[in-house]
Design a protein that fits this description.
By secondary structure, the chain is α+β, with helices and mostly antiparallel strands. The protein has two domains: 127 residues, Alpha-Beta Plaits, CATH 3.30.70; 59 residues, Alpha-Beta Complex (Molybdopterin biosynthesis moea protein, domain 2). 28% of the residues lie in helices and 23% in strands. The chain contains seven helices and eleven strands. The strands form three sheets. Strands 1, 2, 3, 4, 10 and 11 form a six-stranded antiparallel beta sheet that branches. Helix 1 crosses helix 3. The longest helix is centred in the N-terminal third of the chain and has 17 residues. It is elongated and about 75 Å long. The protein starts with 19 loop residues before the first helix and ends in a 16-residue tail after the last strand. Keywords: Cytoplasm, Nucleus, Ribonucleoprotein, Ribosomal protein, Ribosome biogenesis.
């Protein structure tokens, strides 16, 4: 009987950021998942929120398994070319593993996976460096949403405020952020205080592999070639 490619030993000693044992363990877990689950997806994410993603993983715990490990190690696990892939067609999956991407192994029907990913959307407060989706400007006058104890803190965020008979008051119009420009730490903090959420945590499916077929979901990605795969 031919020896299974999944049992092939892989040397990962050249990489130093994480221990060799961790990398070899990740390789083995991914290769075992190829055998244990019906299909494999690569997905990408924007505005990742760890707590929300943990909740999403828990919902699929009984039928699926996620991997957000080192991309190069995940590529090695699946195979980066037709000559070293562990199952036919898996090297095509490796070509999508770069940037903010991860793996999902699952036994769920394709239609259900697509529906869950399309429906997943979690608004949240934008972080420093995020691009403002709109201009936010506060007009001169009282800011009754803030208590008087917050006046010193608001001044530290650059807001031209003062106390007027115990009420926080803007002494002039103030632009919190401009549409299309990165948020400063102060702007991000003020938006949070105002309750304005400019970030949305989303997940996007890129491709799907199964022993029967391979399909790409995102338009324009079909043209990815072997040179796009990260070198190990």
């Amino acid at each position: 009987m031919p020896k299974s490619k999944r049992d092939r030993k892989v040397t990962l000693s050249k990489t130093r950021k994480k221990g060799r044992e961790y990398k070899e363990s990740l390789v083995n877990l991914i290769r075992q998942s190829v055998e244990d689950y019906n299909s494999l997806y690569v997905f990408t994410f924007e505005n990742m929120r760890n707590l929300k993603f943990k909740e999403f993983r828990e919902r699929l715990k009984s039928s699926s398994r996620f991997f957000l490990g080192t991309k190069k190690v995940m590529q090695v696990s699946l195979g980066r070319s037709a000559s070293d892939e562990i199952r036919p067609g898996l090297h095509k999956v490796s070509k999508f593993l770069h940037g903010d991407t991860a793996l999902l192994f699952t036994n769920l029907p394709k239609e259900e996976v697509v529906r869950m990913f399309n429906e997943f959307e979690e608004p949240d407060f934008a972080r420093t460096g995020s691009i403002a989706s709109e201009k936010v400007e506060l007009n001169e006058g009282p800011l009754e949403q803030f208590t008087h104890e917050m006046e010193p803190f608001l001044r530290k965020q650059g807001m031209p405020v003062r106390l007027n008979k115990g009420v926080v008051e803007l002494v002039s119009d103030f632009v919190v952020c401009e549409e299309g420009k990165p948020l400063s730490p102060e702007s991000a903090q003020i938006l949070r205080l105002l309750g304005i959420k400019m970030a949305t945590f989303r997940l996007h499916l890129l491709c799907r592999w199964s022993p029967e077929d391979f399909e790409v979901y995102e338009e324009g990605l079909e043209g990815i070639n072997d040179s796009d795969v990260e070198s190990a």
